[in-house]
């Protein structure tokens, strides 16, 4: 699935003066939280739009182009198909092609053999589809989940293009109306699109200005960040140092929710960059709250060891969120909290696609949005507080404690 339809040629970098990012008023820019909530839970927030509805509305509004970069694409089968909310998204995408919208879909090669059906259908319907082997390129995967509409608005979030992500997993994303953010995302996507098409490993597409300092309508200063280091249209977009800067600037509080948290990379090499930053914050009196999924607390795992060690630090509170099973039967790789976001001092927010492990920043393609000031961090804080105080969250317990959150088998493909 490496058809050449929809290819865009890599451009030479414009002059550095044109690349300098400065804060600027963009009256049309806005950012909005978008959630997914597991069925049969009380986690659905009435004031936060649902991803399935938002995706369909965005896709139906496309007039010229739709550009997707997704880890994989997976539709329900059998008895689950009737209730799948991804079906409407797929149908909207196919409607877009029929009205002349140019659609591209980029996915990671690692899941193609497991989930070939949606991509094959897209190709049959005239959508340009490519897969990229990020393992060969950088040692990781295309883990990002985002799409861009008409080069003007974007969706970035933890939701995979997967029916389970819309109905059986807690997720968090953002809908961003900004040509600057959309353009910077397209540079990332176009870089990967060209690499997937066989362009030299050195290919980097830089056709737009950096999205750093976009002022949204409610006062948020928006910045696009991405990974991995060494594979970015501009290396100044690398997310890890920007996250560390937010943590090091914290004065009162840090609230983080991620699927998994480790102080090691998958190779076994130490990765303490974020862990050290949290400890520095706690040592200066900042109250740190870390919320992880049950996938991160398997007894004896590297993740559990890192969490247990961090939980013993003064001013740090670590808890796990457990989503109960679905009454309709087991759903593999679902019924979990998969969101990835952070709030610092109630005034700075990050929503992204990276779990907090070294590979996600050094080897794997991810993207995120940082919002400084404005309404978005406040909304994100309310969302975190609702999780933290819910009946689904418990402090870490000793592995042999019967009241500990139940461990679950982890998806080895790194969702």
From TrEMBL:
InterPro entries: Diverse_PLD-related, PLD-like_dom, PLipase_D/transphosphatidylase. GO terms for molecular function: catalytic activity. Transmembrane segments: none annotated. CDD domains: PLDc_vPLD3_4_5_like_2. It comes from Labilithrix luteola. This is Phospholipase D/Transphosphatidylase. One of its GO terms (biological process) is phosphorus metabolic process. Residues 7-21, 401-415 have a biased composition (Low complexity). Pfam families: PLDc_2 (PF13091). It comes from the Bacteria. Signal peptide: none annotated. Residues 1-21, 395-415 are annotated as: Disordered. Residues 138-165, 333-360 form the PLD phosphodiesterase domain.
């Amino acid at each position: 699935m490496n058809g050449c339809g929809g290819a865009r040629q890599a451009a030479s970098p414009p002059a550095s003066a044109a690349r300098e990012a400065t804060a600027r008023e963009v009256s049309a820019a806005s950012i909005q939280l978008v959630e997914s909530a597991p069925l049969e839970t009380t986690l659905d927030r009435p004031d936060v739009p649902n991803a399935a509805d938002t995706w369909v509305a965005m896709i139906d509004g496309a007039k010229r182009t739709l550009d997707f970069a997704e880890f994989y694409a997976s539709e329900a089968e059998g008895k689950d198909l009737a209730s799948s909310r991804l079906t409407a998204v797929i149908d909207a995408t196919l409607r877009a092609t029929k009205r002349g919208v140019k659609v591209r879909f980029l996915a990671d090669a690692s899941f193609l053999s497991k989930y070939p059906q949606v991509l094959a259908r897209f190709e049959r319907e005239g959508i340009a589809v490519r897969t990229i082997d990020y393992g060969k390129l950088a040692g990781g995967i295309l883990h990002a989940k985002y799409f861009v509409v008409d080069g003007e608005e974007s969706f970035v979030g933890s939701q995979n293009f997967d029916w389970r992500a819309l109905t059986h997993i807690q997720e968090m994303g953002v809908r961003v109306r900004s040509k600057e953010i959309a353009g910077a995302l397209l540079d990332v996507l176009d870089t990967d699109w060209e690499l997937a098409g066989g362009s030299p490993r050195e290919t980097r597409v830089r056709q737009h200005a950096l999205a750093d300092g976009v002022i949204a309508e409610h006062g948020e200063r928006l910045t696009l960040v991405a990974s991995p280091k060494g594979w970015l249209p501009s290396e100044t977009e690398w997310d890890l140092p920007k996250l560390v800067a937010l943590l090091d600037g914290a004065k009162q509080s840090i609230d983080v929710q991620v699927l998994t948290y480790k102080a090691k990379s998958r190779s076994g090499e130490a990765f303490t960059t974020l862990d050290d930053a949290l400890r520095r914050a706690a040592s200066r009196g900042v109250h740190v709250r870390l919320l992880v999924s049950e996938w991160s607390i398997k007894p004896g795992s590297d993740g559990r060891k890192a969490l247990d060690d961090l939980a013993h630090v003064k001013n740090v509170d670590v808890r796990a969120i457990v989503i109960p099973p679905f009454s309709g039967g087991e759903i593999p790789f679902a019924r979990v909290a998969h969101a990835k976001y952070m709030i610092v001092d109630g005034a700075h927010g990050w929503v992204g696609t990276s779990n907090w492990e070294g590979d996600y920043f050094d080897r794997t393609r991810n993207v995120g949005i940082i919002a400084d000031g404005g309404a978005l961090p406040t909304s994100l804080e309310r969302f975190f507080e609702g999780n933290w105080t819910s009946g689904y969250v418990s402090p870490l317990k000793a592995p042999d404690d019967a009241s500990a959150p139940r461990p679950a088998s982890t998806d080895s493909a790194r969702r």
